[in-house]
Amino acid sequence: MNDRIMADMRMTRAEVDEFRALHRKEGRTASGMFLLEGWRALAEAIDGPIDCVAVREDMLDRPELEALRARSIPIREVSERDARRISATEQSQGVVARVRMIWSDVTTLFRPGETIVLALDGVGDPGNLGTILRTASWFGARGVLLGRGCVDPFNDKVVRSTAGSLFHVPMVGDIDLPISLGAARSAGCQVVVADSAGAVDLPDWRPSRRCVLVLGSETHGPSPSVRAAVDLAVRVPRFGRGESLNVAIAAGILLAHMRMHSIS
Predict the structure, then answer these.
(1) What is the number of domains present in the chain?
(2) Contact 110, 189 (CB under 8 A)
(3) What is the pLDDT of residues 206-230, one digit of tens each?
(4) Can you give the C-alpha Rg of the chain in angstroms?
(5) Measuring CA to CA, which residue among 232, 255, 216, 210 is closest to residue 109?
(6) Structural domain boundaries, residue 28
(7) How far is CA 43 from CA 53, 155, 183, in A?
């Protein structure tokens, strides 16, 4: 075993407990940290605000760890039993990173230039939020506003479903959406809400290059106060018999439209 691997320390019982506490929202809030699991997710976060990494004892020679050692990020060796204890999944990949939360400032998202921002109003399903963040990253969104009532974006399930995109999309959390949407309009952004009862069909909408797209709760849609704060309500036409469209799927459809049809 080489000298670098020998330098990695065994994880203490207190550290195991600290990691496990981050599976609860109160633990994440108190510490400003969250957990990231899996080698693929770790690769996406390799240059990010990683605080410490727990690695199963038989995986300490993985090449992904060299970049972390070069940055002097602590690597803790854990037994298979403790790897399972700190994991939120049934089949642990043997690596769990503790990462510092990073929040953006809402004013940075409305600065001059091309703007695609998502604003989420009460999106409560972790899988939906994770997929929306992943989709926002794919389409190069400048950021995501999380209104009050949205699920915690550092929830284990959200983090897993982002597939690492959490580190590529700036987020602003727990905000008063109507006030922020008003600020977006003052900054020259078009503010559009996706609404099944919207007056404009998607094919007829020509989005601005500076646009904020609002997506509402899976169950109730956008709230009345949010509806009152937008410029336009757009609906995705239905051609079949589906009762409703999943909010994450709607995000992908609308973002693709925005990228193909935006105007100055």
Answers:
(1) 2
(2) yes
(3) 999 999 999 998 888 899 999 999 9
(4) 21
(5) 210
(6) 3-100
(7) 12, 19, 36
